[in-house]
Amino acid sequence: MKKINFGKLKENILDLLYPRHIKCIFCGEELNEKSYNDTCETCLKTLPFITHSCSRCGAPVALDNDGVCLNCKANNFDFNLARSVFAYSDKVVAVVHKFKYSKMKFLYEPLANYLCEYLSTWEISPDIITCVPLYVSKQKKRGYNQSELMARRLAEKLNIPFHILCTKIVDNISQAELNLKQRKENVKGVFKFNSEYRRMIKDKSILIIDDVYTTGSTSNELSKMIKSNGAKGLYVLTFAHGLGNQKL
Ligand SMILES: [Zn+2]
Ligand SMILES: [Zn+2]
Known about the structure:
This protein is 36% helix and 14% strand. With 248 residues, it is an alpha/beta fold. It has two domains: 46 residues, no CATH class; 195 residues, 3-Layer(aba) Sandwich (Rossmann fold), CATH 3.40.50. Helix 5 crosses helix 7. Strand 5, helix 10 and strand 6 form a beta-alpha-beta unit. The site of one zinc ion has 8 residues, from helix 3. One zinc ion (ZN) binds next to helix 3.
């Protein structure tokens, strides 16, 4: 009779419970232990890190001399600045979709690392980190709020307080199906400020974390709520910039 290898069995069970990140989160390539942030060398070299962008919203687009994109010129945003780590690409979209829709919760760690690294190069100093909230039934169905997981991890790494400053009170339809004008309308009044935080945020600088920035409508609506309750500066940092991809 074959002897049971209990050590191996335990290892297999642990692997099932806590999948080790041995594959590149972007392309699935097997990784060695020294790989940077669960990402293979090829992806690191070819991923669309944003290095040149609109100075206001972080869009990776061709700019006028003043460095501000057309979307920002046409809109008066309530946040001061927004930035994204990655521009749109199939690999970036795929990892966001896996995180949001395929219950691959563990992705919050490497994604938060990318946010953390970006933040170290961005000259802002937030007092509080928050996230874009999900509607309660949506969060229940998904099992977690992907933006909250990234934001909490980032706050923990930087030793900055994390609070969910607003609640989503309207289960609006997904922004992905809508054009710019409809997106603005669709997010109007969907967030409620949690008044217990009013004193805490007074004159403070707040960083909002989300997975994707597309037209800025969601971040702007949330910023408006937080700003109107006394915060001084609102900043937005997302993992990806969804410009040119309405399906994000
Ligand atoms: Zn890869
Ligand atoms: Zn812009």
